[in-house]
Amino acid sequence: MTQTVLITGSAGEIGRHLRTTLRRGGRHLVLLDVVEQAGLEDGEDATILHASFTDAGAMRAACAGVDAVIHLGGLSTSGYSFADYLALNIEGTRQVLEAARLGGVGRVVYASSHHAVGFHPNTPGSTVPDYLFPRPDSYYGVSKVASEALASLYHDRYGLDVICVRIGSYRTVPTDQRTLWNWLSPGDCTRLFEAALTTPSPGFRVVWGVSANTRRIASLAEAAAIGYVARDDAEDYADAVSDEPEPWDRIGGLYSEATIDDPPGSSTAT
Q1: pLDDT tens for each residue of 223-269
Q2: Residue closest to 9 by CA, chosen among 23, 19, 20, 21
Q3: What's the total number of domains in the chain?
Q4: Tens digit of pLDDT for each residue in 48-107?
Q5: Assessment of whether the complete model's pTM goes beyond 0.90
Q6: Which positions are catalytic?
Q7: CATH number for the domain harbouring residue 111
Q8: 160-194 burial: b if 16+ Cβ within 10 Å, else e
């Protein structure tokens, strides 16, 4: 039996990666984005949709016959107003969840972020739990907190299975001191989303999206509970990472850069 998976934001960095690495026999991907996407490769079992996840009608149509949604779409960490985040990230996520509910989709995997808890203090020697209470570091972080709350509501009210992945820093390799603890490698990204798609009856969960980093401070208990086995370690690249903090790391001792004016060039769900 074919599993059909809808990916919103499929033209983004993580979306392009998962488009390739989540290919399986018996799996059909529906790739939705407002940005033009590369055409199908020979033998690629997928459908490309040029549409916005904020369009209720388009999302209803996209969810027809879908088994699971990976919701990556949304505004990134810099350069937008609160009204922008409200319209795209929060209301847009509600549209995705509502379309999934009305379409009989069984599962949504939501790309949340470490920015949802970025103003928590970093206490040496302590482990950051999976369900750490929200303490957002930016309007972007607020949008992730609100979307996690919507996901919880749609599970409790309608029975939709939703896994919220608080993604650390998705990079090819670690690039700064912060990513030595919160790096999510491309390989582990695939392993985590594959686990989120295939674990039986997850209910509502919040899991950390990081690799098996030596300096990791975030719990991987919930991620392991859904079948995720992290394999990569940022420490392998530590010698190439500068000891100097990045210019935007103006507030020390926090999990993320923790500024309203986030650095330029940040990508969605990092």
Answers
A1: 999 999 999 999 999 999 988 765 544 444 344 444 444 433 333 33
A2: 19
A3: 1
A4: 999 999 999 999 999 999 999 999 999 988 789 999 999 999 999 999 999 999 999 999
A5: yes
A6: 140
A7: 3.40.50.720
A8: bbbbbbbbbbbbeebbbbbbbbbbbbbebbbbbbb
